[in-house]
């Protein structure tokens, strides 16, 4: 039986509320991050600014040193950005281990509609990671990370576009490599959970509908645009859309953990 690798519990990442929903497993946490189209990255902009800065960025968990490493193994978080952005300048000038940052993301899988507003909730998956960010200076590693992040948008998109990037594109693009020191995830799944005083009251249960509305991201029909002359949508795009739509729906519906009516099982 294989071991499960976990992030260490520290004061910064230990879940205190609804502890039964917490996970520190590398595999579960990395999967949520890599399934997220947007990561929210926060950092301290400097001593003269009292407010933390939070940026939406794209990124992926991976290992350049061990590219075949699976999601349940130690990985770094690679973030894609512009050369002169504030976070890149801070990382460039940071000393020691690098720029301390926090990476967070969340996905909603369902609306929990209960008898009382106080019991309403979401089915969700969320992650918070803490680590130190440094600029990737090795060109081979930079190209590897750029390809990984591009293919996270649409599978095989890197090889179906003009590559490699030219000198100007490589100069304007910066990749941050975040060495993760701790992390945690939180997952809520299942159905409605009401107060005993409410579900025993027929005057209430007889007039209020309760249940779960599954929520999932849906990719639509591609619309031609730009200077590309290829008329038919390539298979790498159509197959990705079909696969992701099925996966996203199945995940949202499985999170409910109750049987759907027969007419909805399609």
UniProtKB/TrEMBL annotation:
It comes from the Eukaryota. It holds the Pfam family Pyridox_ox_2. InterPro entries: Pyridox_Oxase-rel (IPR024747), Split_barrel_FMN-bd (IPR012349). This is Flavin-nucleotide-binding protein.
């Amino acid at each position: 039986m294989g071991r499960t690798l976990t992030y260490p519990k520290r004061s910064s990442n230990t879940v205190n509320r609804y502890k039964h929903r917490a996970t520190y497993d590398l595999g579960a946490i990395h999967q949520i991050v890599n399934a997220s189209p947007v990561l929210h990255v926060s950092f301290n902009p400097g001593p003269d600014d009292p407010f933390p800065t939070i940026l939406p960025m794209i990124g992926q968990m991976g290992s350049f040193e061990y590219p075949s490493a699976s999601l349940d193994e130690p990985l770094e978080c690679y973030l894609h950005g512009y050369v002169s952005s504030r976070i890149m300048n801070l990382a460039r000038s940071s000393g020691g281990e690098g720029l301390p940052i926090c990476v967070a993301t969340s996905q909603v899988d369902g609306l929990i509609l209960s008898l009382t507003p106080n019991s309403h909730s979401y089915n969700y998956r969320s992650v918070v990671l803490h680590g130190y960010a440094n600029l990737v200076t090795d060109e081979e590693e930079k190209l590897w990370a750029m390809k990984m992040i591009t293919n996270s948008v649409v599978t095989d998109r890197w090889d179906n576009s003009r590559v490699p990037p030219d000198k100007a594109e490589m100069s304007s693009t910066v990749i941050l490599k975040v060495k993760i020191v701790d992390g945690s995830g939180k997952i809520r799944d299942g159905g409605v959970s009401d107060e005993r005083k409410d579900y025993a009251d027929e005057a209430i249960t007889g007039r209020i509908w309760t249940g779960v509305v599954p929520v999932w991201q849906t990719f639509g029909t591609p619309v031609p645009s730009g200077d590309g002359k290829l008329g038919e949508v390539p298979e790498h795009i159509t197959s990705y859309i079909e696969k992701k739509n099925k996966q996203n729906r199945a995940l949202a519906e499985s999170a409910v953990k109750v049987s759907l009516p027969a007419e909805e099982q399609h």
